[in-house]
Structure formats: C-alpha cells, structure tokens
Amino acid sequence: MQPRVTTSTLMKMKQEGKKITALTAYDFPFARMLDQAGIDMILVGDSLGMVVQGKENTLSVTMDEIVYHTAMVSRGCARALVVGDMPFMSYQGSLEAAVENAGRFLKEAGAAAVKLEGGADVCPVITAVARAGIPVQAHIGLTPQSVHQMGGFKVQRDEKRLLKDAQEVEAAGAFSVVLEGIPSPISAKITQTLKIPTIGIGAGPRCDGQILVMHDMLGINDRFLPKFVKKYADLSAEARKGLAAYIDEVQQGGFPSDEYAYK
Ligand code: KIV
After folding, report:
1. Same domain assignment for residues 218 and 180
2. Are 218 and 115 part of one and the same domain?
C-alpha cells in the first residue's frame, strides 16, 4: 500500500518541483477511481451544489450535505489527501462556529483538511482553525461564494490585492492556497513568492498543482464549461449511448435474453 499523501507531502512536492494533481469528487465510486488512478488530493468542493445538486451557484450547500458527501469520499480513498470545502456561512459568523464546523469534516467525515474562501479578510478564521489542529487550505481570486459581491464569476486581475491576500493567508497558517480565475503572470508571481504550494484552477500552467471539477473534465456535466476546462472524456455521451441501447433492447425484447436469466 502506498503511503498517505499529507500536507507535508504537498510541501515537499513543491520544494522538489513535482506537480501536485487534484480533482473534486463527491461520492465513493469516483473517489475510489481517482485514488486508484494516483491523484494526490481530492477536494469535496461546494461545487457539489452546481454539478451534483443542479443549482445555479454554490451558496445553498449546507454543512450536513457536504459532511455526508465527504464521508463517502473518504471511504473511497486509501492514498489521496481528502479536503472538505467549508460552505457559505459556515465560517463567517464567528470563530467558534468556524472551528466547530471545520472539526466536523475530521470527526464525522474522515477528511484530513478543510478549504475556505477568502484572502486577508478570513485570516483570523484560518489562524483559529489551524490552531485547533485542522490544516486549512485557502482559496483566493475568483471565490464563487462571493458571486454576488463580484457581480458574476469573473477573472480577478488586481495583482497588488491578490499578492497581499496570498502572503497573508500563508502568514495566517494556511498549508496551501487555491488560485482561481487569475491571469497566468499573476499566479506565477504568487507561486514564486510563497513557500506553501499553490493549486491553480483557471490560473495558468505555473502553479505548483492543478485542480478541476471532475464532472467538467470527465464530461459528466453537459452544461456551460469555462475556457480553462479541458475535457478528458465524454462520460455523458457514453452514458446516453448505453441508456438508449438498454431502452431499445427492453422495448424490442432483446433484454433479458436467456443468458441473463436463472434456469
Ligand atoms: O468547490 C470547488 O469545487 C472548488 C474548486 C473549484 C477549487 O472550490
């Protein structure tokens, strides 16, 4: 059995110039596939709201829902680092609530770390959660939970602010930072400046690692895809083909044949 990926493994990979691979997952079978394929980190993202629950944004995802999905993912993982994504309003109310909610991912769902969105503004939360012994991944740039404040899902270009956010989340105790929707030259500069690993999504090729939403890159999500998504498979088309064949065979009496019947 291969050793578990830990936050220290990710730090070592950055130091050795080895790229970190990451994807989202939301259930046992896909977590198992990702883990066996050799992915380093699995994020149980609040993108759950969009790609699994069919909502327009991530805002309505609850702690109970994401803890439930994180537990399924953890059961499917033997090697990858499992990170639970703190949903909107689970860490903004008070530091006590943030620590308690972060703890649920480890106590109830088997995760090894949590992620939360925000830069300099959430540093007190990062510090409080990290001091409780819970590794925290920060997430700056395009932060989907602030969709209404940002006026939509928009690329973030304020270099001075992004660099400050990145430096402050590192100083606050984050073990890593997700850079989302940031032009390549800015994410490259952040990656060079920080000691902790950067994980990019829509942030160009020079981050320490990359993450995508699994439903986008495997073609399970057949709705809008942003420019930065590369489709590595078309599972939706494959599934539709299989479903059409099943319906046709049942209707025509081709299935079940004797081969699939008990004698
Ligand atoms: O919720 C999510 O899936 C995320 C990734 C896109 C980084 O936050």
Report:
1. yes
2. yes
Convert the pLDDT of each residue in 85-99 to its tens digit. Answer: 999 999 999 999 999
CB of residue 47 inside a 6 A radius of ligand 1: yes
| Structural domain contains residue 1 | no
- Residue 180 CA: which ligand 1 atom is closest? 7
CATH number of the domain encompassing residue 50: 3.20.20.60
Model confidence at 224, in pLDDT bands (50, 70, 90)? confident
Q: Tell whether 13 and 111 lie within a shared domain.
A: yes
Burial of 247 (0-12, 13-18, 19+ CB in 10 A): exposed
Which of 43, 52, 199 for a ligand 1 pocket mutation test, highest count of atoms within 8 Å of Cβ?
Answer: 43
Structure confidence at residue 222 as a pLDDT band (50, 70, 90): confident
Using alpha carbons, list the distances in angstroms from residue 230 to 177, 183, 207, 215, 233. 22, 17, 17, 11, 9
Count how many Cα atoms sit within 13 Å of the Cα of residue 223 in the half-sphere of its side chain. Answer: 8
Longest dimension (CA), the chain: 73
Range 213-221 contact pairs with CB under 8 angstroms and sequence separation of 24 or more: 213/23, 213/24, 213/45, 213/47, 213/51, 214/23, 214/24, 214/25, 214/30, 214/34, 215/24, 215/47, 215/51, 215/52, 216/51, 217/23, 220/51, 221/51
Residue 179 · residue 198 · CB < 8 Å: yes
Identify which of 58, 73, 90 to mutate to test ligand 1's pocket (most ligand atoms within 8 A of the CB). Answer: 58
pLDDT-derived band at 223, boundaries 50, 70, 90: confident
Based on the structure, what is the number of domains in the chain?
A: 2
